[in-house]
Design goal:
The complex is a heterodimer. Chain A is of the alpha+beta class. In chain A, 44% of the residues lie in helices and 21% in strands. Chain A contains 5 helices and 6 strands. Chain B is flat. The two termini of chain B are 43 Å apart. The N terminus of chain B is likely disordered. Classes of the chains: A alpha+beta, B alpha+beta. At the A-B interface, helix 4, strand 6 and helix 5 of A face strand 27 of B.
């Protein structure tokens, strides 16, 4: 084999190996990207009902307040389903772009359960917590908005517990406590401080 | 075992440890000989028993680790190499499933169910469940036994068992999968009940003036360490953890007896029978009580009388938990640690004692931070955070309703802050005022910051935001120094108020 042929063969082999490595990296990145995509599939069938007036307590990162805002949405008769639809619509406001208080795509409320009359348990999607921005203030705004919106629209509910994918989680994104029950009185004190 | 019981046991089996006939001269000669023979046999048995006790008694220096899982608990011996504590990894995993290990040259490989771990002799690096794993001290290979530093075991078990771990390092107690038995006390007529969240089986021993319950297999935990009671029977209860076990020591005013109830979930403390009759006159007004009361040890009294003023600085996040990503290269955990160190220096310059929850880039579970604060009985707890949202400094207190501390009751973990929230709010006001003096914009809010609710002390959280448009300013030395100076001055100013409400 001539020297030129050896060099050409070597170069070709190197090119093959290089292209193979490049393809491998491309494939891995594509798979990682697919895994990180938020799950945006609908989590339950839409519930029909007459349009009702509800009050959203919407969080605004700048200037860091929670403001009441009225809206009209179709709500079923069952209180738990009403709670789910209200929070679903509230979170929908945050998932939209642009939003005054952004939540990640795929963030949603899966279910609301009413227990012992005054307590509601809110079950959220994994993306709600896993993609949430980290920070005491930004997490506090989310929790306050959810709790106040739910308790304001479901008379009798005074305590709220937030779950993520059916399970208790230590914090929302490293700061806000999700192991506790939120009392509407303390949340209202917070909203008063934010005014 | 009491001597009388030991003697009774041997009497039943035909032996007498002591000849208590009283008047040997009345016995016939053959009976005297028999008595002497029996005395000799008894002495020999006593000697053998004493020897066995000495041999079987564990050495006071023997270190052990206790591991508590949801289904089982066990203890393992801890060895020392180069002044570091080590544990046999194979033995730690054995109770959980099929585990095997082998040596391959300088490598030690372990298989557990479908997972593998690999370490190299004298190396700080290894692999656990397919991930790189750093050890705080070199791996030790003793024959076929692989020893890992004790401090690395929680992380290794967490990965191999895919479960949450909580490690009480000072006490060598490792809790897996949230295993924990909590307890409360219930003062009732004629006694005191200690109620546990699960059945317990402690070793109970009594000494003059106190009754001790030692829990080796039960994952008993508590956020309170000393509880003083206004009770005619019990003056105080102390909880401590050490060498793989927990101890609950009840300081009695009268000799006490422990009785199990509710299937082992309750231990009732009642006056011992001989005291049950004498206790009422002792409690009667105007009657001298010195004859029956047993005062608690002076060390406990002095500890309660003069608690030191200690500030705990909790640099948020760390290790695997980076916190918020403030910019592409700046993580919250780095900012909080730098700020905590500056604040510590400032406090020390005022002659105040400051402890840190972490002084390096290490993972410290959130609840463990509160447990550390409660165990150290700190006066002030400051949790430090950083964010890119907003400007200046936000000072937070717990989102909890105030409540006066219930005398005679253990403080619930989730509401430990309730009795201190007023002093926390007062301190937050002072911090805000001092920040204002240093021209740092600030706001004060209540917020559900973990773990403020679990801290039994004046507790605040401080979240620093950029001073201007540049997010990187949160890590600027000058900006952090101004904040540290203001917060330290606020703690100095607020000290009297906080101590008054303690």
């Amino acid at each position: 084999m001539t020297r030129a042929l050896t060099i050409a063969t070597g170069l070709l082999l190197a090119a093959v190996l290089g292209m193979g490595a490049y393809l491998y990296i491309l494939r891995r990145n594509e798979q990682a990207g697919a895994r990180n995509l938020p799950d945006t599939r609908p989590i339950s069938a839409p519930v029909a009902g007459p349009p009702s007036r509800v009050t959203f307590y919407l969080a605004y990162d700048d200037p860091g307040v929670v403001r009441a805002q009225e809206a009209s949405i179709a709500l079923p008769a069952d209180p738990a389903q009403r709670g789910r639809e209200i929070l679903h619509a509230l979170v929908g406001e945050y998932v939209k772009r642009p939003s005054a208080h952004e939540l990640p795509g795929g963030a949603d409320v899966k279910d609301v359960f009413l227990v012992t009359g005054d307590t509601a348990v809110v079950d959220t999607t994994p993306a709600f917590a896993e993609g949430h921005r980290s920070g005491v203030f930004v997490e506090t705004l989310t929790v306050a908005s959810l709790v106040k919106t739910l308790t304001a629209n479901l008379p009798g509910v005074t305590r709220v517990k937030i779950l993520v994918d059916g399970k208790e989680r230590e914090t929302l994104a490293g700061h806000a406590d999700l192991e506790c029950f939120y009392d509407v009185v303390t949340v209202e004190q917070l909203l008063e401080q934010l005014r | 075992m009491p001597w009388s019981e030991l003697e009774r046991m041997f009497l039943v089996s035909g032996f007498s440890l002591l000849d208590r006939s009283g008047d040997r001269g009345l016995l016939p000669r053959n009976e005297k000989r028999e008595t002497r023979k029996r005395g000799g046999a008894s002495a020999a048995i006593v000697a053998v028993l004493l020897l066995l006790l000495l041999v079987s008694a564990p050495s006071a220096e023997e270190k052990q680790l206790s591991i508590y899982g949801p289904q089982m608990s066990y203890s393992l011996p801890v060895s020392e190499h180069n002044k570091q504590e080590y544990i046999a990894l194979l033995a730690a995993l054995e109770p959980f499933g099929n585990v095997s290990a082998g040596v391959d040259g300088e490598k030690w490989k372990l298989s557990f169910n479908n997972l593998e771990a690999e370490f190299r002799r004298d190396s700080n690096r290894g692999k656990v469940a397919g991930r790189r794993f750093g050890l705080p001290a070199p791996f030790v290979l003793e024959g076929n036994r692989g020893l890992v530093p004790l401090r690395a075991l929680p992380g290794i078990l967490g990965l191999m068992l895919a479960t949450k771990t909580e490690y009480h390092e000072a006490a060598r107690r490792l809790f897996l999968g949230g295993a924990a038995t909590h307890f409360t006390t219930d003062v009732r007529e004629g006694g005191l009940s200690v109620n546990f969240s699960a059945p317990v089986n402690p070793l109970i021993s009594t000494e003059p003036g106190r009754l001790k319950m030692t829990f080796t297999r039960d994952p008993v935990v508590s956020s309170a360490y000393i509880l003083r009671l206004e009770n005619p029977l019990v003056s105080a209860i102390t909880f401590s953890e050490n060498n793989g076990r927990a101890e609950l020591v009840v300081q009695g005013r009268v000799p006490l007896l422990a009785q199990f109830a509710a299937g082992g979930k309750t231990i009732d403390l009642v006056p011992a029978p001989s005291q049950a009759q004498s206790a009422p006159p002792a409690a009667a007004p105007g009657t001298a009580t010195a004859a029956v009361s047993v005062p608690p040890p002076p060390t406990l009294q002095s500890l309660a009388a003069k608690p030191p003023f200690v500030v705990m600085l909790d640099a948020g996040h760390g290790g695997d938990d980076r916190g918020a990503l403030l910019s592409e290269t700046l993580a919250e955990k780095a900012v909080t640690l730098a700020l905590a160190r500056r604040l510590r220096s400032e406090l020390q310059s005022y002659g105040l004692s400051a402890v840190m929850s972490r002084d390096a880039d290490v993972t410290v579970p959130v609840e463990q931070r509160a447990a550390m604060a409660d165990a150290a009985r700190v006066t002030v707890y400051v949790s430090l955070h950083a964010a890119s949202l907003g400007r200046g400094v936000r000072v937070y207190t717990a989102m909890i309703n105030s409540a006066s501390a219930k005398p005679g009751g253990f403080v619930p973990w989730d509401a430990a802050q309730a009795g201190y929230v007023l002093s926390s709010r007062a301190l937050a006001d002072i911090v805000k005022a001092e920040l204002g003096k240093h021209e740092i914009p600030s706001s004060k809010l209540s917020a559900p910051v973990k773990p403020l609710n679990n801290v039994a002390a004046a507790a605040i959280a401080i979240e620093i935001a950029p001073s201007g448009a540049d997010v990187g300013s949160v890590n600027a030395a000058g900006y952090q120094q101004r904040i540290a100076t203001a917060v330290a001055e606020a703690i100095v100013v607020g000290r009297a108020r906080v101590e008054a409400e303690r």
